[in-house]
UniProtKB/TrEMBL annotation:
SUPFAM superfamilies, per the entry: S-adenosyl-L-methionine-dependent methyltransferases (SSF53335), Winged helix' DNA-binding domain (SSF46785)
Pfam families: Methyltransf_2
GO function terms (MF aspect): O-methyltransferase activity
Keywords, sorted A to Z: Methyltransferase, S-adenosyl-L-methionine, Transferase
Domain of life per record: Bacteria
Keyword Transferase: yes
Domain O-methyltransferase C-terminal: 204-361
PROSITE patterns: SAM_OMT_II
Catalytic machinery residues: H290
Protein name: O-methyltransferase C-terminal domain-containing protein
CDD domains: AdoMet_MTases
Species for this entry: Sorangium cellulosum
Length: 384
């Protein structure tokens, strides 16, 4: 009897190990394929063919592709909120605030605020941070006991890690690794970010914001996507990229691939630890502030100020939330992702302007760049 039980146990163990190995190999093949295909696409000739006219504006990403990602995660955000009882709580206490909601459920305020923003952008709630109420449409179609219930909604997927993040406020993954100074999965992250930042680099060039500004520092510039775009568009530009060492290796590969390595200097280091070089005409942060809390962002803005020549510009590229109403939906969904994965969130224009003003920047303005992305720009005063 006992040898039989041991035999079954060993067989089960072997089967489990076999499945795990198969999954691991499949995941490794998937990653290798993504990397291979990414590098096969990167060619100066292909860019020149598509962006032939020096003054041409680059098209915004197709809206349907943007919404494709946003809609499925928004629907999950809705069904999870309903399943946890958050919608019923708001319905029973109209006028409640996002922070009261967080306190009642034992969640951290930041992700709950981002969640509420998304639910409001999706038409499930009225109000924003406070004065929350359930909309009539939500009451009709989201409650399973309503005769109008939309039964096509998917089941809520409430994982332990989601609940842990909501309760502790701390995200694992890349954020934890970055905080230890490691460029986590740069070979995958880089290509994932490139699809946002490469077109944004061309749009930033076309905006004219960098006209006459030659010495440019790109802080946490990923694998160099923005630097490459700017270097290709203006041969007089001298760029410096500051990144974690693992990403810098890939940035060198990308700048080399595009034939601009002689005009993009790559510095490997932790932006919160190393001394930044100085004397720049412009300092760029592209999709960086949304990864950090306000104190860290202020620290970055102050470091940028110190690295700029008097009159130099700081340019913060982010997808911005609307100032006076919830949304846009895409940005609100992105903000919730940042809140859950990065312990941060997307900003309203005034929040970024205030932050840059606190670091000493003046002449603050917001310039729409491409799709949902804008540049919030400030100048270091000529004196002081
Ligand atoms: C959201 S990505 C944006 C990358 C790039 N700006 C772009 O738009 O393609 C954030 C980047 O911040 C970098 N990063 C995170 N912590 C950092 C640190 N302490 N010092 C330097 N870079 C850091 C990561 O390696 C990653 O490439």
């Amino acid at each position: 009897m006992i040898p039989l039980a041991i035999g079954s146990f060993v067989t089960l163990l072997a089967l489990g190990l076999f499945r795990l190995t198969r999954q691991w190999l499949a995941e490794r093949r998937r990653r290798q394929r993504i990397e291979r295909e990414f590098w096969a696409r990167q060619s100066r000739d292909a860019v020149t063919r598509l962006v032939s006219d020096a003054a041409a504006a680059i098209p915004a990403p197709l809206e349907v592709l943007q919404q494709h990602a946003a809609v499925s995660s928004t629907v999950q955000a809705i069904v999870v909120a309903r399943e946890l009882g958050m919608l019923r709580f708001i319905d029973d206490r109209p006028g409640t605030t996002a922070d009261e909601l967080a306190a009642h459920f034992g969640f951290v305020e930041r992700p709950v605020r981002a969640w509420v923003e998304l639910l409001a952008a999706a038409g499930v709630l009225e109000g924003r941070d406070h004065g929350l109420a359930l909309t009539e449409a939500a009451r009709f179609y989201l409650y399973p006991d309503s005769p109008f219930f939309d039964s096509s909604l998917p089941a809520a997927s409430i994982s332990r890690s989601l609940l842990h993040t909501l309760r502790s406020g701390s995200a694992g993954g890349s954020k934890a690794k970055w905080s230890e100074g490691s460029a986590h999965h740069a070979a995958l992250w880089g290509p994932a970010m490139h699809r946002f930042s490469f077109p944004l680099g061309f749009a930033l060039d076309a905006s004219g914001l960098l006209a006459g500004r030659r010495a440019i520092l790109d802080v946490a510039g990923g694998i160099g996507s923005m630097c490459v775009a700017l270097a290709l568009r203006d041969l007089s530009r001298q760029l410096t990229l500051l990144e974690l060492p693992g990403s810098v290796d890939l940035a060198r590969q990308l700048t080399d691939r595009y034939g601009v390595a002689d005009r993009v200097r790559c510095i490997g280091g932790d932006m919160f630890q190393v001394a930044w070089p100085g004397g720049f005409d412009a300092v760029l942060f592209t999709n960086i502030f949304h990864d950090w809390n306000d104190e860290r962002c202020l620290e970055l803005a102050r470091r940028a100020y110190a690295s700029l020549k008097p009159g130099g510009l700081v340019l913060v590229q982010e997808a911005l939330l609307d100032e006076d109403r919830p949304g846009p939906l895409w940005t609100a969904h992105f903000s919730l992702m940042m809140a859950l994965d990065m312990e941060a969130r997307q900003f309203r224009p005034s929040q970024l302007r205030d932050l840059l003003a606190e670091a000493g920047f003046v002449d603050l303005r917001v310039m729409p760049l491409l799709g949902y992305n804008s540049s919030v720009v400030g100048a270091r005063p000529l004196t002081g």
